[in-house]
Write a structure and sequence with these properties.
The structure holds 2 protein chains of 2 kinds. By secondary structure, chain A is an all-alpha fold. Chain A has 15 helices and no strands. Classes of the chains: A mainly alpha, B alpha/beta.
Chain lengths: ~350, ~260
């Protein structure tokens, strides 16, 4: 067979990495400055520097908008985006399936159900206001993943794209219907249904940011440390076993980390669909499928994608604010169809 | 103590019995050819040894039950070339071969400093993949992909090679090259090969021993010349295997080669 020149830019890895490192703060500042009230970049930077130094900023113009509203919101968007993107990349490698993602598999819906049940039935942890909702979201995300994968393995041990997606859609619909039912009966306690179906980062504060940051460092860190194992799974589970990967342990570790991250994200930002599908796919086109590059770059790409999506949600129909999931779903569905069609063309 | 000892190996899927009480052993320096008709359970034996399917019975490698080996330890000792390797993502040939060194490096942080690059280069050179090193595996032909996974196996450098239909998709040049390569590999102390083959000529030409299976049961085990005796083969394949082989080879006469 004639040799086809390899297209991937392995040599540019460091440059690509630096580019993402540079673009992320640039997008962050853009998203903090732009909104229903436009704040000049210089003022924003000065305010942030003053706040970091501990100076009194209470009298400064835009201070409360920037420090109390925009920054925690944009940081939440970045962290949720990074987490969901990392989860998507991890799942796509683990299952050797480019369409696997928290939303396509129904894991996010399961996490939503857990959170909604916790709120409706008043499941709380003393002294930790978010913990009850968060733990239930994580637990349900993990149970959801186990149910979906057990069903998929039973029906089709090769875990083909069609089987996974079909089961994911059915499971998602089933779980969403229960969520709606619980919300209907406990509507006085639970946020509007769109939060759990379309997500929102409105009103997030620094506590949310800290929790998201902690979850990303711990669970995301574990996923990042499994880059080689995910490479092996992405080539094939049998191949992973043959080269010495402890497939059971790695699979369980990744599933727990993915469930925990999705659970935390959903309990804070609701169900924001397709982030984990779109960004790893785009990233894979740029840096290739090697998880040593794909995972870290997906973190940055996810952060950038969700910060921009949140910005679009805030300004597209200003003063009306769109749920963030509307923006991600619109982009995500187009990408989903694209991957599905190109995948079928390849005979997958 | 044998290098590999398989005793009363049985595998079932529900009521379907794939293997029933199969026993055999492999000594260093041996090339065991597992032969038999389709559905005899040949591949299942390899999958059981690599712990890819649940089984009953015992499989002992170097005096220790393989269930007690850690995955990484086992991969340093036993390597398997599967029959079906399909790619989903565009990994390069080198990235796939590099995965073969997984068991040699303790963690993602420590790396494999003991000759990783040399092992990868050697494996790629041995399988004739130098020109395809950075090519996406999605664009490879079946034979090229088979050679890529064979290179991964050489990079893994186990003591016992298990090959499931190693000549799948390979043209004659590479069939000959791969089998000669494995025969040469086998000359080093403490190594052995177990392979599943359909081509009985290859089994007789390269194998030292053979295991003949039929419907999941052992028909014969021993030196390849004894196991491939006409009576046994005719019984298992329900045809006159020797006549068929002679008829095939009679197509290749000396007169043809001189023209």
């Amino acid at each position: 067979m004639a040799q086809i020149p390899h297209k991937r830019k392995e040599g540019l890895y460091v440059l690509e990495y630096l580019a993402f490192l540079a673009v992320t703060p640039a997008v962050f500042f853009l998203c903090v400055c732009v909104g229903s009230v436009k704040v000049p970049l210089g003022d924003t930077v000065r305010l942030i520097l003053d706040a970091i130094r501990g100076s009194d900023i209470s009298g400064i113009k835009f201070a409360s908008i920037i420090v109390s509203v925009r920054i925690p919101r944009v940081l939440s968007a970045a962290l949720v985006g990074a987490s969901l993107s990392l989860c998507g990349a991890g799942m796509q490698g683990l299952l050797k399936n480019p369409l696997a993602d928290g939303s396509t598999l129904g894991v996010s819906s399961a996490a939503s159900l857990g959170a909604v049940i916790a709120i409706a039935f008043g499941i709380t942890v003393p002294f930790l206001p978010f913990a009850g909702t968060m733990i239930m979201a994580i637990l349900f995300a993990f149970l959801g993943l186990l149910i979906i994968l057990s069903l998929a393995y039973k029906l089709d041990s090769s875990l083909s794209t069609n089987t996974i997606i079909l089961i994911g859609v059915i499971f998602s619909m089933f779980v969403s219907s229960i969520t709606s039912l619980v919300i209907t009966f406990a509507s006085d306690k639970i946020k509007h249904i769109t939060f759990w179906t379309m997500g929102s980062l409105q009103g997030n504060n620094y506590t949310h940011v800290l929790i998201l940051c902690g979850a990303l460092v711990i669970f995301g860190g574990v996923i990042l440390l499994h880059a080689r194992e995910l490479n092996a799974f992405a080539v094939g589970e049998d191949n992973a076993r043959n080269i010495g990967v402890n497939v059971r342990r790695v699979r369980l570790t990744i599933l727990i980390c993915v469930s925990a991250l999705i659970g935390v994200c959903v309990s804070i930002g609701g169900t924001i669909a397709f982030v984990g599908l779109v960004t790893p796919h785009m990233t894979r086109i740029i840096v290739g499928p090697n998880h040593k590059k794909l995972l870290p770059v997906s973190v940055f790409a996810g952060a950038i994608f969700l910060m921009l999506s949140d910005l679009a949600a805030r300004i597209l129909l200003n003063p009306l604010e769109l749920p963030i999931g509307v923006v991600t779903s619109m982009i995500g569905s187009v990408v989903f169809i694209y991957i599905f069609i190109t995948g079928r063309r390849k005979g997958k | 103590m044998s290098m590999l000892e398989v005793k009363d190996l049985s595998v079932s899927y529900g009521d379907l019995h794939i293997l029933r009480d199969v026993s055999f052993s492999v000594e260093p320096g041996q090339w065991l050819m597992i032969i038999g008709p389709n559905g005899a359970g040949k591949t299942t034996i390899l999958n059981s040894i690599s712990r890819g399917v649940p089984y009953t019975g015992t499989i002992v490698y170097q005096g220790r039950d393989i269930r007690r080996w850690k995955p990484r330890e086992l991969a340093l000792n036993i390597g398997l070339l599967s029959q079906n390797n399909s790619m989903g993502y565009a990994f390069t040939v080198e990235e796939i071969v590099r995965l073969g060194r997984y068991a040699h490096s303790a963690s993602v942080l420590s790396g494999d400093k003991d000759g990783r690059e040399e092992a990868i280069d050697r494996a790629i050179a041995l399988t004739g993949l130098e020109g395809l090193r950075n090519q996406s595996s999605l664009t490879l032909s079946g034979g090229e992909l088979q050679r890529t996974f064979l290179a991964q196996l050489f990079a893994q450098d186990p003591r016992l090679l298990m090959l499931d239909e190693p000549t799948n998709h390979l043209d004659l040049v590479y069939q000959k090259q791969v089998f000669n390569l494995i025969r040469e590999w086998l000359t080093e102390n403490g190594r052995a090969v177990v392979s599943v083959v359909h081509d009985l000529s290859l089994a007789r030409a390269y194998g030292t021993h053979a295991l003949l299976l039929s419907k999941g049961r052992t028909v014969a085990e021993g030196p390849v010349s004894e196991v491939t005796a006409p009576k046994l083969l005719n019984e298992v394949y329900s045809m006159d295997v020797y006549s068929w082989m002679r008829e095939m080879y009679s197509q290749w006469t000396d007169e043809d080669s001189s023209t």
